[in-house]
Amino acid sequence: MSDLRAASKVRYCRTCVMPDTRPRIVFNAEGVCNACLTAAEKRSIDWDARLVEFRRLVEANKPKEGAYDCVVPWSGGKDSSSIAYKLKFEHGLNPLLVTFSPLIPNEVGEHNREALLRAGFDHVMVRPNQKVARHLASRFFVERGNPKVHWDAGVNSAPVQVAVRFGIPLIFYAEHGESEYGGRVLSEEHRKIRDITEVLEHQIGDHPENWLDDMVGERDLAPYVYPDLQDVERVGVKAMYFAWFFPWDVTDNYNYIAAKIDFHTAASGRSDGTFTNYDSLDDKIDNLYYYMQFIKFGFGRATRDASRQIYRGRMTRGQALALVGKYDDEFPHSFHAETLDYLGISAPEFEQIVDLHRNSEIWDKGGNGWVLRFPPE
Description:
The chain is mainly alpha-helical. It has helices spanning 3-7, 34-42, 47-60, 78-89, 107-117, 130-144, 149-166, 177-180, 196-204, 229-235, 242-245, 250-260, 286-297, 301-311, 317-327, 336-343, 347-356; strands spanning 70-73, 95-100, 122-126, 170-173, 238-241, 363-366, 369-372. The strands form 3 sheets. Strands 1-2-3 form a 3-stranded parallel β-sheet. The protein has a two-stranded parallel sheet with strand order 4-5. Helix 4 packs across helix 12.
């Protein structure tokens, strides 16, 4: 191995299986990532005190008029559905559910949304101009290896737009991903509160005004643009993380909501690239999204899912490594033809675009194709 390769060797967390190629992740001197450190710290949280804080927040932000106590950004998945159900039936709130439409809706996701709505919720679905959405997906796949850049913007802006429009002061997002899964925490307050700084820096990394081109005009970007901050302040909108107030576990969320509604999982028994069957089920293009994560950063969906199981003590590192070796590099065969059609590209074009986004510091090309220079260990 050359000095260059040795200098850029990928390190893996000694507790979970996440590599240091994950954007913004930090390892301590012992080689443990900040997600694992956060998981350990959360075991000592006084959750009774957090519940009191939650109740005070709700009481202090009761809307002066209108039917809704809060907005829940809602995909219909296990996490947002469990939040909505708990807020309504365990805490007596009346949430308005807001969905920013998937790029390629999945029948499983549609079923799960309908199953929760039948339990008794009001719902707003924001479905932007599909011609523009497809154009941006194709453009961002080519330019950034991520067909969901604009969706990331929409899923952050739409709930706040609705909150401003209806005069609803509280929004409950799920978890703070930067602290839960390894990233850069802008401040201690950002573990609890989601603001425009967090959205632009970590969720999108861009402003929609930069997307203007011959096909996309300023009006086309309305669903993706965060509301004027003066309007947000006028209504007093506060976007909070549910996981600040309550213990957070993705598997518990699935078990909870599956016991409450007819929640369907992946029809094939598991999702492409991983061993789980209950996560990211609403958008067919998600399989490509996670595959491109593997291409760009050298870790895939199985690494993500296995690390989350380790955080909660459900899996050993050895078990996780076996699952990562089995599934992480799996090609996203499910819905691949539909994805190519949606993006308007051919199979050869797809392969060329994928290879453009391979990080040369972590990939080698040999006689049998591409291999990771530093596989998980």
